User: Fold this.
Amino acid sequence: MRKIVIAGNWKMNKTVAESVKLAGEVVAAAKDIKAVTVAIAPTYLALAKVAEVVAGSNVKLAAQDVHWENQGAFTGKVSADMLKEIGVDFVIIGHSEQRTYFGETDATVNKKVRKVQSLGMTPIICIGETLDERKSGQLESVLTRQVNGAYDGLSADDALRTVIAYEPVWAIGTGVTASDDEAQEAHAFVRGLLAARYGDSVAQSISIQYGGSMKPENAAGLLAQKDIDGGLIGGAALKADSFLGIVTPGETLSK
Ligand code: PGA
Assistant:
């Protein structure tokens, strides 16, 4: 059995006060959600306050990034134990915006995954191809490199404590979603990569989210696909009703 995991990635949006308000709305709206794991990822600045809002609820707390070192002279960065202390459950790692704008590589993704896991938090490992890569037939080679890089040195037990987010870069924030079939095909390929590394039973137990312009209008079709186990939601997560409009269809699914 795999968990459906729906996470809201708020990116660089919402002040602390706005974050507290939205978190409160999500907690209230999600109170009867049982089958789906719901998480929200505010900015670092708002995490501690939002932690207080979600405490005792069924909404999990996620961070948008982390540094792999414990402490020290890394201006602008936040360590995993700082996240752990305030109750973070999930950490988004390797988002395409990190890869594109801030020099994230498969090697730094791997270091972050290991650090986060060493403290008992769950990494959400983001992978996905650009439009040029897809058009030039590199989809499979890009996903293979990203998965093998992220999971380098991880045991099967470690792998079971990860979530993957497949996010085609061309679908992020563009309003263009991968079709149900395109997404399913990529997810099945990624699950095959996990099976090759860890065997089928481990691969069948790892949740693979879809991300990229997911919204209430297209969520049910995507979530109904055999290998799509949730979503990493940007724009549509900035309002409680559209976010919960994605969470709700997952309630009836079991994978
Ligand atoms: P989007 O972002 O839903 O706004 O496309 C998804 C993401 O970047 O995680």
About this structure: The longest strand covers residues 4-9. The mean pLDDT is 96.
